Amino acid sequence: MSTAGAKAYIKKLKTDKAFAKRVKACKDAEDRMKLAKAEGFDFTKAEIMAEKAKLSEADLDKVAGGGKPACKQGTDIPI
Q1: What is the mean pLDDT of residues 24-30?
Q2: What separation, in Å, do the N-terminal and C-terminal C-alpha atoms of the chain show?
């Protein structure tokens, strides 16, 4: 299993505020996955969850904006 796409997605979330804002505006996990695919990222739900599990709480706050607890809980929502 390669997680390169998931790693690149998380990196962009951390570094590109406009992209992160568009991701956060998505209504659900399905919309976030569609946006990620449209932006050229290729990863599965399992791959993003594996990469998300490696993040610290501080990292999760950065990509989740501290406002979406479900993102931090590890539910079915890819960051």
Answers
A1: 91
A2: 19
Report the C-alpha gap between 57 and 2 in whole angstroms: 23
In which band, very low, low, confident or very high, does the pLDDT at 74 lie, cut at 50, 70 and 90?
A: very low
Helix (H, G, I), strand (E, B), or coil: what is residue 52? helix
Please identify which residue in the block is written with the tokens 């079915």: 76
CB 64 within 8 A of CB 79: yes
Distance CA 21, CA 31 (A): 13
Please report where in the chains the tokens 């501080």 appear, as a residue: 58
What is the Cα–Cα distance from 76 to 79, expressed in whole angstroms?
A: 9
The tokens describing 73, both together, are: 């809980």
Of 66 and 22, more confident: 22
